[in-house]
Amino acid sequence: MKVVKFILSFILTIAITVALSLKIKSVPPLGKFLDPFHGFWQNAEPLVPEASTALTLAMLEAPVDVVYDSLLIPHIFAENETDLFRAQGYIMAQHRLWQMEFVTHVAAGRVSEIVGVQALEFDRLQRRKGLTYGAENSLKELMRTTLGQTQLKAYTQGVNAYIQQLSYDHLPVEYKLLEYHPEPWTPLKTALLLKYMADDLSGADNDLENTNALKLLGKERFDFLFPSRAADADPIIPATKKWEFKAAPLDTPQVAIADTSEFIMRVVDKPDPDNGSNNWAVDGSKTRTGKPILANDPHLGLNLPSIWYAMQLNAPGINVMGVTLPGSPNVIIGFNDSIAWGVTNARRDVKDWYKIHFTDASQSEYYYDNNKLKAQKRIEAIKVRDGKTVYDTVTYTHFGPVVYDQSFPADTVNNHKRGFAMKWTALDASEELLTFYHLNRADNYDEYVQALKYYQSPAQNFVFASASGDIAMWVQGKFPAKWKDQGKFLMDGSNAALEWKYTIPNAQNAHVLNPPRRFVSSANQIPVGKDYPYYVYDNTYEHYRNRRINQRLSSMKNITSKDMMDLQNDTYNLMASEALPLMLDTLDLVTLSPDEKEIYDLLQKWNFYNNVNYKAPSAFDMWWENLYNLIWDEFDGTGAITDKPDKETTIDILKNHPDDAFMDLKSTSVVETMPEIVRESFSKTVNDLAAWETEHEEEYFWGDYKGTQLRHLLRIAPFSIREVMVGGGRSIVAANSQNHGQSWKMVVALGDQPKAWAVYPGGQSGNPGSPYYDNMVPVWSSGNYFPLLFMKDKDQNVSGIMFRQTFYPTSDTEE
Hints:
Oligomer: single chain
Shape: globular
Number of helices: 23
Helix content: 25-40%
Number of strands: 28
Distance between the termini: 44 Å
Strand content: 15-25%
């Protein structure tokens, strides 16, 4: 059925009148693509894969056994860890090769090689952000270590062993569709994958937007609308923690902000602001078993193939299970016999912008601390499919790459062409692979802490629990020590006083072990209270999911694994519970029309849960958006790119400053008040809901209105899944919005033998023709889980095994 659906959709998309011998842009000749002997049809797979029980990998030192369970999760058993990494690379490529390579092409700015000139500006920006430069720095650092070399070389060997035996018949369908072939895997590609994740998770900043807002509003008004922390913030590390160290003093320069005569225009797309996650762990005093339970659900793009791949790795000294990123060795999130761990995005401000003053248009030298420093030039050759190679020269200062200069972007105001350099921790040499290598083998808290010392970017909140009873949270990354407001605005690159002075010592990164409240949790909120010795700023911190989680964990007793699953699936809208009563109370009920009264009653009776079969969440979501836009209309049409104040600030103003000047609509000649703004936005909402129903020919139930979908990385409709009915939403524990959400849900109960449950929105296979491409989606969307099969040895006789196979060294099979 999947094959038929794809073929029909594909043919209708390109039009049946196109001759089979013609090539359309990046689409291959259809005769070849639809060839029943070599084309797409060869990618269809049966429910039980027709797998060989014996395979040959020439570079192996000893046989490697692989057990596949009913979810197509491989359990790899090797006699040494080098063979373990080789087998991991081979199996990963077998199921996710196209995804692995495409993502690294995206990171490296090489998409034009695949699709042509339409990706040229995207590739230029990727090159100018320096992701390949950062990957090269990290690769050099890793290859200096024996462990780094062992992992990367062996994993690369395994991937390439699969590529070398791959015929066109079994080439992943995306290669056939776009008519290109995989190239050999390299250790640099793995390093690029990790920089891609750094860009996705720590690539955001507000420096340029803040600079515009400061110019527009003035300092006092800016600080009011963009506070460094919410008044009722609930930090990751309990605010009651006493810090046993002092930060080295930092002098705040008198002139800290670059002088800009015009508003700054910006064209860089930021990562999804909802990139985040939830994680928590409760100790044995709060659980029914008397042992800790850990939970983690990363919130990322809802794409197909899925961002994660599940597997178990077993060799002398290691027995670990969880998920990894296709293209990287080890397990990234998971558990072993003794511990479990998970991650959430730390959202620390680790990217700053400096205005560079070049001595002339050649950008060969620039002024710094009353001296002239030489800039470095990096020539980027961007190959373009069916076109000429485009060359772009990127200037590197000691801060980092000059992303914006006279040649990029070419269509912006003069101010933008003067040279803005980006200083970003992700471009520094780092060894994150070693963190996961050691975490996979860790037995206790001390070994967990030792493993984290290698980790720099993207900064993450690492939750931890052990079978021995410890729970912990560590906000881990490379964090510059900053004076107040440093990096909040564009800084003058010629002033040495504005440099980062030193990095916060790793031991002084925010962390907690076995806190008195008997649980640890993080959900992308601010990491610490006001007493933390270092300045912490980022105005993208979460404010609702985290407080809901902490409220629930504080009150829960005799917790079971099922309780933790229920909390991961919690759809309670705390933000709505704090905003909606105020909005409803402001309405004058006497003036409401019958249609408006109907919506009012709907919202008045709502229990604040964003369930798929409720209408009230849709009505609130639309009303809030309309009200928010009316309040902050002053930020529209200013000629400056700025952020608008966040939700919690907006609610605070509605509640405590209803007479604020921003309640007035800029588009009218009269002065509006808060009740008038609320009333106008409500009337608009009632009309918008009716229009939505007419346009979509269905009622605005939350599941339909939210429209969650799983999109193929190439946005190919037949390879995507539309209308996934799953509850939750932004700022809700179950953080599932239209294209973003819980990319992996895992619950681990520690004990003598760990027990784990997990699910993710997709499947193990990256092949749209496989039944394992999306088989987990119904279970994921319904809030259910699969018990994970965690095997002790390769010969274990347990239910749920689909098939077994063995990889042999060449000499073994020849004998």
